[in-house]
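We emphasize that the prediction below concerns an isolated chain of 78 residues; any contacts that depend on oligomerization or on bound cofactors are therefore not represented. The input was used exactly as deposited, without trimming of termini.
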Amino acid sequence: MPRGPKGERRPVDVIGAAVMIGKIATGEIDDLTTDDGKNAAAVALGRMGGKARAEGMTAKRRKEIAKKAAASRWKDRP
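Result of the prediction step, given as a token string:
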């Protein structure tokens, strides 16, 4: 199944797309995208994911992860 620009699944054919638009317009199915085209459920999960992970870690562990990320970002630079 093809995906839209934001990764959402879309019907393969034109008639399937028209049926989907009709269902969204009549409220039969919900359009799960936000104003900027992102999936609302994914946005909500993304907001709480990093924060919840950080709250469960010690400061020492967060520092280790940050150092590893910085080293990875800068490894190919002169």
